[in-house]
Amino acid sequence: METLRHIVLFVHLVGFAVLFGAWAVQAFGGKREIVKLMHIGVTIAAVAGLALAAPWGLPDGVEMNYAKIGTKLVILLIIGAFLGIGQARQRKSGQVPTALFWGIGLLTLVNAGIAVIW
Q: Residue 97 and residue 61: Cα distance in Å, rounded?
């Protein structure tokens, strides 16, 4: 069961890698727009994160860190909101607001860092 939990953790990190990779390509490729791959990455990270938040496969005596789970969930919801708002503005005006775009990348790094370090 612990092996399955590690696989789900790996998938969670892959979700952040997909999101950040798609963001980085757009950030340093010159267009700075929100693409479908970013939505796929955040969805993978969210689903795997919710699976990790369930109390299964933990060794005896290990307790869940609910502060970490809550913090990561709030950041993930903000990233999702930034993606949705940014894509709506992109459709309307043809470009994503700069603060929203860079916020997506920064918050993705913060969330992945929390997953690994905390």
A: 47
